[in-house]
Amino acid sequence: MNSTGFLEIILGPMFGGKTTQLINRYNEITDNLNSHSYSTIQPDVFTINYDKDTRYSTNQIVSHDGKTLDCNFIHELEDIDRNPKLLSKLNNSKFIFIDEAQFFKNLKNWVLYQLDHNNKHIILCGLDSDFKREKFGEILDLIPHSNKITKLTGTCSKCYNSSIYTHRISNEIEQEIIGNDKYIPVCRKCYNDLNK
Question: Where are the domains of the chain?
Fold first, then answer.
């Protein structure tokens, strides 16, 4: 394992498989750690999800296809510094997994600190744009600092081509509205047709 920080970003629209990919990466890394004489030790990983994302669980990251991963639910990344138990777990972890990264304020500075000063290996996933096709959160600000980027697509709910956007089907106008029943994945053409 490289002793310098490493950043992997998984992004795309809702229903694109981002959380599934994050859980798959977690399983790959922990399986690899366990196969290299660490089998009696809990892998040194720290998982984070946004505390308002309780669509499926209040103590696990859950993908739309039902895969799960135990996690720490927090509202702000700085909350970790104010919680001695979480801070100890973070400090003793080489790997950090972050789901729903678009919701975390100060994501860029926190991630860069973990990469540059603590040499963490961070894998994060989240939306690259909101329902208006505008930048969502600070994920895109981390692209110049990333070692690996995966842009996922889903299936357009209208024409079944690849979806790259998330279309809101509810009337709320705030950027942060959580709920699978409020969005559909759409391709560029269908997004434009729905937003004329």
Answer: 6-152
φ, ψ for residue 20 (rounded to 5)? Answer: -60, -45
Question: What pLDDT digit, counting tens, does each position of 120-162 carry?
Answer: 999 999 999 999 999 999 999 999 999 999 999 999 999 999 9
For residue 17, what are its two tokens?
Answer: 């498989």
CATH of the domain spanning 6-152:
3.40.50.300
Nearest Cα to Cα of residue 125 among 47, 8, 28? 8
Does residue 100 carry a catalytic annotation?
A: yes
Among candidates 145, 149, 189, which has minimal Cα distance to 167? Answer: 189
- List strand residue ranges (DSSP E) for the chain, in order: 6-12, 45-50, 60-62, 68-70, 72-74, 95-98, 121-127, 148-151, 154-155, 162-163, 165-168, 183-186
Which of 100, 138, 172, 174 is catalytic? The answer is 100
- pTM score > 0.70 for this model? yes
DSSP letter at 141 equals G
Cβ atoms of residues 23 and 71 within 8 Å: no
DSSP letter at 26 equals H
